[in-house]
Amino acid sequence: MSTPDAASAGAPAATARTPHDLPDVTGLVVGVLGGTGPQGRGLAYRLAKAGQQVVIGSRSADRAAAAAAELGLGVRGADNAATAAESDVVIVAVPWEGHAELLTSLRAELAGKIVVDCVNPLGFDKQGAYALKPEEGSAAQQAAALLPGSRVTAAFHHLSAVLLEDREVDEIDIDVLVLGEERAATDVVQALAARIPGMRGVFAGRLRNAHQVESLVANLISVNRRYKAHAGLRITDV
């Protein structure tokens, strides 16, 4: 994964909700698949620092354990299958190239879980980053197709791994766009985002709207390269 830095029944509400309206997620275990990579490791650190129970996953249990020990804060490491099985909410932060294979292999372990896909399908050439269009429409839609027994959402696409991992940065000033089909699931993800100082989770539509959210990362990469920044997003008037 590369990073930049008229509703029908059951649809999530169109308006943003304040943290006081959101569920208590403090007791949930959050697993991070791809937790040894920059984005996954950074998310694991921020959630653990906020008091969340976190397990990071990797193909290698030893590598995950070593990364967890480096992070501290009570973070645990395990292989991907154990991480998925032990967690209530599972963040998918793996490279796009391995996305389908990994999720297919973990279909049983992820059944019934809230899955948060933050993968951005991107290509790179001499002109810079550009968005790829998966056959299913987006990485999140691919996840939903591969995991029919899971509660798939999409979020955390526009976060700078550099800022996430920087222990001298106390707050990250950004809105996290959250997409999904089920309001209860998107509320949980919004609540997790709100636990990180400076962040706010904002509902941004159903999964069919995920492609443009994922694609926007290519624009943010261009912004960051031009201005030597770690740009993110803020949604106004909500």
TrEMBL record:
Show where the Pyrroline-5-carboxylate reductase catalytic N-terminal domain sits.
30-121
Please give an example of a GO cellular component term from this record: plasma membrane
Bias (Low complexity) ranges:
1-17
Q: Name one GO molecular function term.
A: cupric reductase (NADH) activity
For this entry, the protein name equals: Pyrroline-5-carboxylate reductase catalytic N-terminal domain-containing protein
UniProt xrefs under InterPro entries: NAD(P)-bd_dom_sf, NpdG, P5C_Rdtase_cat_N, STEAP_metalloreductase
What keywords sit in the KW lines? Oxidoreductase
Instruction: Keyword check for Oxidoreductase, yes or no.
Output: yes
Which Pfam family, giving just one, matches this sequence? F420_oxidored
* Gene Ontology terms: biological process: copper ion import; NADPH regeneration
Q: Where is this region: Disordered?
A: 1-20
